[in-house]
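Q: Given only this backbone (288 positions), what sequence would you predict?
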């Protein structure tokens, strides 16, 4: 590697999650070669101390580890298998994708990259706030040696790292977690509606809920939004529509029946259709 202590990092995707993550790496002394389709995102990365790469090939050529944090399956396919993609450019390097994408497309990416490079699937659990604080959770699968090489990089970004196996296990576990997160939002929203209908003030509802056996870090984290009825997005309704759709597809591919996920998906789709797509996903719990 170009620096045995701190490998050069290529970064693709400087959105709401990507930007605070590269800032933490820069602050930790890593050299970042960044690229993004959005010029404004690239400007933000430069202002934080990253170097702007002129192309994906440039990112690969100047980096030891290439990391992507992109929005969906289509974007991952484009950056790897597209006409000017990374496939064929990563020999001897590690490619880490930290996005939430389908296991099926992730497996396609593994084939496209080939055996000359190491591919780590490393989706993260957390929000923009936990990204800023370096308290994400990394769920990783792929070659063990490559995961171990990335340990110090992940340690800057995350409070916890889990190595899960050499295939697509990380993709499935991220969908498992997001299924529970999405379902929690829908169930809390329904329960609070009953409480309000029974004449209980929202502050009292949340006091008891957060001091009960059903309290969770997620509910505690969303408590202020619920009590103030203010849903500035940490993770949007539209993103949850995407993820619950991925969950449904992954379940169908494995012949797993998930009617609760289908119901929750319909709730988020209805919220998006009602104009709430860019609100935080816990907007399901909003007061009338």
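A: Predicted residues:
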């Amino acid at each position: 590697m170009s620096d045995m202590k701190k490998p050069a990092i290529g970064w693709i995707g400087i959105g709401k999650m990507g930007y605070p993550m590269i800032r933490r790496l820069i602050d930790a002394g890593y050299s970042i070669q960044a690229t993004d389709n959005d010029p404004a995102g690239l400007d933000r990365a430069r202002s934080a101390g990253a170097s702007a790469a002129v192309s994906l090939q440039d990112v690969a050529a100047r980096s030891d580890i290439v990391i992507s944090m992109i929005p969906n399956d289509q974007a991952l396919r484009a950056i790897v298998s597209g006409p000017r993609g990374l496939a064929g450019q990563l020999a001897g390097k590690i490619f880490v994708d930290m996005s939430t994408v389908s296991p099926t497309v992730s497996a396609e990416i593994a084939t496209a990259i080939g055996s000359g490079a190491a591919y780590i699937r490393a989706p993260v659990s957390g929000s923009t706030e936990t990204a800023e604080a370096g308290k994400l959770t990394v769920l990783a699968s792929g070659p063990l040696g490559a995961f171990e090489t990335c340990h110090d990089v992940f340690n800057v970004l995350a409070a916890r790292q889990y190595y899960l196996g050499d295939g697509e296990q990380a993709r499935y576990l991220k969908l498992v977690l997001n299924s529970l997160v999405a379902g929690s939002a829908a169930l809390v929203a329904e329960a609070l509606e009953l409480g309000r209908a029974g004449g209980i003030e929202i502050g009292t509802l949340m006091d008891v809920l957060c001091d009960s056996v059903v309290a969770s870090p997620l509910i505690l984290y969303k408590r202020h939004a619920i009590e103030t009825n203010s849903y500035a997005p940490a993770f949007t309704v539209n993103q949850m529509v995407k993820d619950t759709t991925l969950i449904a597809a992954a379940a169908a591919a494995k012949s797993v029946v998930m009617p609760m996920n289908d119901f929750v998906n319909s709730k988020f789709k209805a919220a998006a259709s009602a104009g709430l797509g860019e609100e935080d996903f816990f907007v399901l719990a909003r007061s009338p």
